[in-house]
Amino acid sequence: MLNLKISHNGGVACCVICQILRMKPILPALLFCCLSVGAFAQNAPPATSTTIQGAVIDSATNKPIGFVTVALQNAKTHAGIRSGLTKDDGSFSLKTNSTGPLEVALVFVGYKSKVVPVTGTDNTIDMGKLILSPSSNQLNEVSVTAARPLMKQEVDRISYDIQADPDSKALSVLDMMRKVPLLSVDGNDNIQLKGSGNYKILINGKESALVAKNPSDVLKSMPATNIEKIEVITTPPAKYDAEGLSGLINIITKRNADQGYNVGLNTRFNTVFGAGYNLNGTLKQGKFGMSFFGGFGSNGTLTNTSGSTENIFASNINILQSGVNTQKGRFHYGGTELSYELDTLNLITASFNLFSNNQSQFGPTNSNTDEAGVTTQTYTLNNSGTSSFTGFDAALNYQLGFKKSKDILLTFSYKYSYSPNKQYNANVFTDRFNYYQSDVPDFQQYNNAGNKDHTIQVDYASPLTKQLSIEAGAKAILRNNYSDFHVDNRDSTAQVYHMVDSLTNNFNYHQDIYSLYNSYQLKIGDKWAGKAGLRLEYTALSADFISAGVTTAPSYSNLIPSVSIQRSFKTSSINFGFTQRILRPGIFQLNPFVDKSNPTFVNTGNPQLKPELDNTFDLTYSNFTKNSINIDLSYAFSNNSIQNVSSLRTIQGKTKLDTVTYTTFENLGTHQTLGLNINTNMNITKTFTLGLNGQVNHVWLTGTFGGTMYHNDGFTGNAFGNMRYKFGTSGFALSFNAGYFSGNVNLQGKSSDFIFNQYLFSKEFFNKKMTIVLVANNPYAKFNTFRTTVNSTQFYQDLSNQNYYRSFAVRFNFRIGKLNSQIKRNEHGIQNDDTKSGGGGNNNSGGNK
User: Fold this and answer.
1) Which of the pair, 653 or 82, is modelled with greater confidence?
2) Which residue, 211, 262, 435, 614, shows the most beta carbons closer than 10 Å to its own?
3) Backbone phi, then psi, for 407, in 5-degree steps?
4) Are 212 and 417 in contact (CB under 8 A)?
5) Considering only CA atoms, which of 673, 573, 682 is closest in space to residue 633?
6) pLDDT tens, residue by residue, 295-311
7) pTM for the whole structure
């Protein structure tokens, strides 16, 4: 988990997109950056006293190699001094005034990395021809201490090396996700993969309590210095559970350690969200290793305004609501991994993760109903409530190796997960007009929900030949989702609350999944690689509505194929993938708890939901030359997609009829998405980098609901740009990030677009062991209004929610310790990616908040 020994001085050019963000707040920043670069160039320091030059040659063809990363570093500490790229003729020239022993590290995709000592004392040192040999594994990460590629394309995934990005010391994990190919983060901090919220997040290849509910809450409070890299698995192989329609996001934490210890401290203070603290570290002593991270902080005290307008066509009724809501809360999170090597063939590992979030909120909502312009009903609803969520998981793994081959591994794993979620709301009405206590009394809502999982898994991996390897395994997930909820109405005469039987239920949803998988990976020389496999899953369901005495028990089986093919060239590759994925509804969508916090707009889940089956095709081109680029074209379709839909329902009260808007989830029709993602990164100069990441999709939605056939389609997309200027060797750096998000297209409507801006000014101290960062987020406006519209044959609805937009922050990062070796992890383990997490919110339900 902690800090790597990689030096980030220089770096390899990676990622980029050829799109221009047409946003007014960005234009002055672009102009400022361009003028700054020119000013800095004019004031550049004079040439250094020593020039180190040479040429890089291919050992097989004896021809020069262009665009090789050449990093000059201290031979004792391996600290980076200067870096650059070779020209087309293979030549390079680096200037330095550093004294002491020096070395040059050469890094290039498709070749074995090389470190060469620098000898000589002249003002110009010519190292002559430096030979690089082709690598048998073109896309392996380099292990030398030189700058390394920021992005890597494998046969079934794209990885983004967080620690190779200098901004990792200044940004949170959520901020860094905006730079990762195929990922985006919208204005409400919802994470999207290829423009969709249907995905699964893993931590170190395993489902984790840290991201069991709303991963954005944790990831925006966790510093990127905790993270090694982020993998976007576009065509998940058969060893992964079939859940996650768009793919998987695998966040790999840092785990490097030497004999001894290493500790890092991160703090931040934000003018809106308050303070946050993070401690991370590693310990390695003999055969025992441990890595850990943890943090706590405030969610801030936030006061937001909201409003809604609804027009009911048949009766010409208009419902206008406006509200003010104040929220505050705190969070805690932590995780640890333990490792003990019994001997070279036997490894025991364990992990523990915990996340908790306590929140309270209160505020009034004013409601006014008119018919043909005449007021017919008004009231004020004063709502207050608390919620507490806890996620915990613990896993134990035993890995057995074989003397015949170190690549033959047999792994046994067990994992337990527990995620309780308690909610309480008190609702008191005042200023009533034609909204009678006898029809809608004051009431309280209670909901105790969550899930408990037991998972058992066995995995076997072995090479069959030098070119062909096999993976096989079996898995059982025993899951119990539960919800015990009730509503208590207040007796206005006796001033006491009584439970309402019709709004009370004890719900248990048992979901047991048994699976077998078998996959093969084939490599043909350095040019071709492929993975293919099948996964058989049997799902046994039992839904018990205990209070109502109703039980349903449907079961189903799925045979899931996955195929990935990669054709590699000298500096680029083309990948094709096909897979089927399953979206099993999660507890949030299944829970029949009726949320009447706003009695005019009611929300509930649907325990009768069926899993959604999705077919995905993916074609990717990646080029790893000086200005690397990644282009991804994908098409996905589903014939029983889960949609978030609304309808009108008439409620008979004691004195009159009332109409409410009822929102739930249904399996409806087809969902098709054609998407294009382009990601690129350019080193404009040695000190100025530019990156762009963009996605555009066309979405088609069709479904029948309430006897009406709905059709909706449209373009969605996002674009994110980042700039960074480093002020020579002073340790100062200036960064600018900006993004545009178009909003979502839903079956019954759409959401508004969003613009994001961020300025960062950082300074490194004590040989890069300490970093202080000043941050300005969206300085142009204090609030941003997010809008969602719903178009139904019965009504039209416009919802608005005002969120804090402007904030300023100070971030502090400090680390101590030496970074050399790695804590050993088992190669296989439990990855419960079979159900929809908070982060994988249905694209039509708005995702996380």
Assistant:
1) 82
2) 211
3) -90, -5
4) yes
5) 673
6) 999 988 999 999 999 99
7) 0.73
